[in-house]
Design brief:
Length: 395
């Protein structure tokens, strides 16, 4: 990244100059984004997961064709970006999406230049503008609550048989009967939660279910997924070919956007038609196949998180959680149960008790008695030498 600051000379230009990476979908752009590049997205109401994925890549700036905070609800993404020191310019309009990938552009305030051409002009977001927009968004939250409730009832009418009777759940070869299932979504703090759950995974050997990019997260944690569920738009080819059983999420009308990719790779799979989200069908699949406990990593649990996902279909997650019921446990709850709480004093006492037990065991054997006799003789010789040395000093 090269930052140029105007000093009043005509030949010097102010602003940030860097190559751009362009993609309307933030989750597709983030893996390609390199530190110091400018991210160009078209993301209405930037959510927390999207913002954290961008911050992780350390861009020089984020240019958003849409409004980063529309006022529908208090979304969390813009605040995260600005707090990380990343310039955010939003509401730039569709023209900014026409920038050529890799092209070096200049961002000066709210203006975006390609060479000498002004491509787009938007609004620079800072802590004050975001705070004001968030205040307005909170006032409009009641409207979203009504919409959320309506979407929930609509989903219940359309998916009643699936939710109540499990109609449409495909047969799979992976056995979940009586076992724990760990469902991983690339979402809120999924990396930290997976790390905290390592003792739980080691002890209980749950079936590892990766939801799209969550399967890559399982691999990155040094584990191997047993099932990969989703529309296959954000999981790597390498992980898809890792030997996990693949369940392709399809729409109710039979269309499955990820099916072509799986077939092109020559991988065996089953199709699960459902109107909900991929994380929903992963939970429903685990529940229907007899999982004793379902542990969720990175999934959505609160109303703000549902809305922050940015889709009306998140109502399906609410009903899915009601359907799964007492089987579902959030990863943070499990990690607290398995968190190590051994103090240094306890650890020291444990070591001393082990040494004492070893000494007693040696003392009752002939070899041990010989060993302790030799040690005692050595100590007698050493104490005799020390006594002679001290006596000589005061003689």
């Amino acid at each position: 990244m090269r930052v140029l600051r105007s000093r009043g000379a005509a030949d010097e230009l102010s602003g940030i100059v860097a190559p751009v990476r362009v993609d309307p979908r933030t989750k597709n752009l983030a893996p390609r984004l390199q530190p110091g590049e400018i991210a160009v997205i078209d993301h209405l109401d930037i959510d927390r997961v999207a913002a954290e994925s961008l911050v992780e890549r350390r861009p020089a700036a984020v240019l958003n064709a849409a409004r980063s905070i529309s006022g529908r609800y208090p979304n969390l993404g813009p605040e995260i970006l600005v707090a990380a020191g990343i310039p955010l310019v939003d509401d730039l309009g569709p023209d900014v999406m026409g920038l050529r990938e890799g092209r070096r552009v200049r961002v000066d305030g709210g203006q975006v230049f390609d060479g000498d051409t002004l491509v787009a002009e938007g609004t620079v977001q800072d802590t004050e503008t975001i705070a004001a927009a968030m205040h307005e968004a909170r006032e409009g939250l009641s409207v979203q609550l009504e919409s959320f409730a309506a979407n929930t009832m609509d989903f219940l009418r359309r998916e009643r048989e699936l939710l109540l009777d499990g109609v449409g759940v495909p047969d799979i070869t992976t056995s979940l009967e009586g076992r724990h299932a760990l469902v991983v979504v690339r979402g809120y703090h999924h990396k930290e939660d997976l790390q905290a759950l390592r003792p739980y995974v080691s002890e209980n050997r749950p079936v590892l279910i990766g939801v799209d990019g969550g399967a890559d997260a399982i691999v990155e944690a040094g584990l191997k997924p047993d099932l990969i569920v989703g529309d296959m738009d954000s999981v790597s080819d390498k992980t898809l070919a890792s030997g996990a059983e693949i369940v392709v999420h399809a729409y109710r009308d039979g269309r499955a956007p990820g099916l072509d990719r799986v077939e092109r790779l020559g991988l065996r799979h089953v199709v699960f038609p459902a109107a909900g989200t991929s994380e929903d069908i992963a939970m429903l699949l685990a529940d229907d196949k007899g999982a004793e406990l379902i542990v969720a990593v990175g999934t959505h649990a609160t109303l703000v998180e549902f809305l922050d996902k940015g889709r009306a279909g998140m109502a399906s997650t609410f009903l899915t959680r009601l359907r799964v019921g007492g089987k579902l446990v959030d990863a943070k709850g499990v990690s607290r149960l398995y968190r190590q709480r051994i103090s240094n004093l306890q650890l020291t006492l444990l070591v001393l008790a082990g040494l004492l037990a070893l000494g007693v065991a040696l003392a009752v054997t002939p070899a041990g008695q010989t060993f302790f006799g030799l040690v005692a003789a050595r100590f007698d010789d050493w104490f005799s030498w020390v006594g002679s040395f001290v006596t000589g000093l005061f003689a």
